[in-house]
Amino acid sequence: MSAENQESDSIDIEEVVLRAKEIMLRDGMHVPALIMDADPQIIVGEIKKLPDADEDKLNLFRSIGLKLAKHGTIQRLRQVFMVSEAWYSMPNNESDENLRPSEDPNRKEVLIIVGVAVNENKKFMKILEILRDTDKKVISLEAINEVVAMENKLAIETPFLDALVDGYQNAFRARYN
């Protein structure tokens, strides 16, 4: 993961979405990225190659969290966001329920932004449809879905971000115990 650091007070989902849209419109793609809102800085990193297997992804994210805490320059992890491109589809009938979005002929290309506010028990998700012209140039991003889940009243699953937070918290506690 390549990273850049910047000092800041905090960042919110709207700012992450705005920056992600700017990148998509400028570059026509978005490398999977992590934005870690920590005290005293914001860390932005690109993940050049995500592993294929979910277990390997979980291990990668847990490892990122462990390294973040062990490094020692972060006092507190406030929020973590992930931005990535994906396929999105809604099943029309029961036979479509097991169809992977990438295999659905009616799929949509989307940009997904998910986030976890670590101490607030709050999760965020925004899904933006990527609209391209006939030359495949990104011309617009349109909101499909926006969800904010507080205290598990709505289910937003963020297993990779949860693994990062878990790795960070375990290493942070071990460092001070």
Can you put this structure into words, describing what you see?
The structure is a single chain. The chain is 29% helix and 37% strand. With 177 residues, the chain is α+β, with helices and mostly antiparallel strands. It has one domain (2-176). Strands 1-3-2-4-5-6-7 form a seven-stranded antiparallel β-sheet, sandwiched between helices. A hairpin with a 5-residue loop joins strand 6 (122-132) and strand 7 (138-150). Helix 2 (54-71) runs parallel beside helix 3. The chain is globular and about 55 Å long.
Write a brief structural summary:
By secondary structure, the protein is of the alpha+beta class.
Number of helices: 3
Structural class: alpha+beta
Rg (C-alpha, Å): 17 Å
Per DSSP E runs of 2 or more residues, the count of β-strands stands at 7
- The helix content is 25-40%
State mean pLDDT (0 to 100 scale): 86
Main sheet characteristics: 7 strands, antiparallel
Topology pattern, helix = H, strand = E? EHEEHEEEEH
Uncertain runs? none
Our estimate of the beta-strand percent is 35-45%
* Strand arrangement in the largest pleated sheet: 1-3-2-4-5-6-7
Number of domains: 1
Shape: globular
Distance between the termini: 29 Å
SSE topology:
Elements: E1 2-7, H1 13-27, E2 33-39, E3 41-46, H2 54-71, E4 76-88, E5 108-117, E6 122-132, E7 138-150, H3 159-176
Antiparallel strand pairs: 1-3, 2-3, 2-4, 4-5, 5-6, 6-7
Helix pairs in contact: 2-3
